[in-house]
Amino acid sequence: MTAPVRIGLVGYGFGGRHFHAPLLASAPECEFMGVVTTFPERRRQVADRWDLPAFDSLEDLAAAGAEAVAISTPADTHLPLTRRALRLGLAVACDKPFTLDADGAREAVELAERLGVPLTVYQNRRWDSDFLTARRLVGSGALGGLTLLESRFERFAPEPGPPAAGGGTLLDFGSHLVDQALVLCGPVERVYAEAHHRDGPDGGPDGGLDDDVFVALTHRGGVRSRLWGSWRQGAPGPRFRVGGTAGAYVVDGVDGQEALLVGGASPASEGDAWGVEPPERWGRLMRGDEGETVPSERGAWDAFYPAFAAAVRGAGPVPVDPRDAVATAAVLDAARRSAATGEVVRPADLREI
Fold it and tell me: Residues 6 or more apart from 175 whose CB is under 8 A from it?
């Protein structure tokens, strides 16, 4: 590339402040221009941390010469902001959940295709160290034929529970869990789900956001995925158990890149140590009572924005195909229906999946 891609950030809440801004600022392929936010305190934070301007609108960002934008705002604003950015000619990297449902996701993808503007979705958990390790083991045949994926994002925060900005646990954690399941195990045939709603009577769906969800997927090739997302789990289970005919990969703890970013570190500050998991956090390849420690792949959240910049320059594909996000949204739609009705939702209900 002859010049860095000029990119701005929309939103400076938890995700924008801790995840997107440090990764943008660390990527030499990107020129981080500033943040679109109208909150006075967040404008001060942007100036203090990055010595960058705050913009009042997407239009102002585009007028300042931006070529692209990262959107990290509440979930229900993603679709309208993506539409506006694309129509301004700005390439878009939208945080997950991409949209609130599959119809909205499909609309955004088709708009980007009509306009010829790059669009991608920030599925950073594809570059978790444990998930990369699982993909390596599956690809190498070390597990034999893949049969089972168990995957969890579980935390203990009973009060106040999941942040409203994420749209609830099914959308927030589920966007990662389902995306990883589709990448590792392929398209889905059947969906069953259960959900607890923190404010509903007896945890029913008539109250507030769901805070504890379970989703069971049957994939076309016969692999089964069991996915848990919770803000109420006092004893979180293993992050992954990936089972095959010859063994299983098990890892307990969560990839450390989030903790690094929240603690103020970044790829720029850590250099070659970024994303490297210490041996005590590595998973194990188990065969019954016998097992061996498996070195973790380097976590690589820092790969996302360089790949996005290359795509903006026409030098490669976007890091996440946005039609993958349509597929994820359709599975989440089916899970929502299943949780409400108790039904197993089958292929006809998944439309294009």
Answer: 96, 97, 98, 123, 328, 332
- What values do phi and psi take at 154, rounded to 5? -125, 130
Which residues are paired to 68 by β-bridges?
A: 7, 91
Residue type, position 279, single letter: P
The CATH superfamily assigned to 125-300+330-350 is Dihydrodipicolinate Reductase; domain 2 (3.30.360.10)
The predicted pLDDT at position 209 comes to: 85
pLDDT at 201 over 80: no
Measured CA to CA, the distance from residue 14 to residue 33 in angstroms comes to 19
Question: Which architecture characterizes domain 5-124+305-317 according to CATH?
Answer: 3-Layer(aba) Sandwich (3.40)
Residues of the chain with CATH 3.40.50.720: 5-124+305-317
Express each pLDDT in 27-57 by its tens digit. 999 999 999 999 999 999 999 999 999 999 9
DSSP H or E run through 192 = strand 188-197
pTM of the model: 0.94
Give the rounded distance of the alpha carbon of 52 from its chain centre: 26
Helix H or strand E segment including 249: strand 248-251
Contact by Cβ (8 Å): 118, 310: no
How far is CA 180 from each of CA 21, 185, 226, 270, rounded to the nearest angstrom? 24, 8, 12, 26
The closest of 120, 110, 3 to 65, measured between CA atoms, is: 3
Nearest partner of 26 among 254, 310, 268, 297, judged by Cα? 268
* Structural contact between residues 240 and 283, judged by C-beta atoms closer than 8 angstroms: yes
For helices 129-140 and 169-185, what crossing angle results, to 10°?
Answer: 30
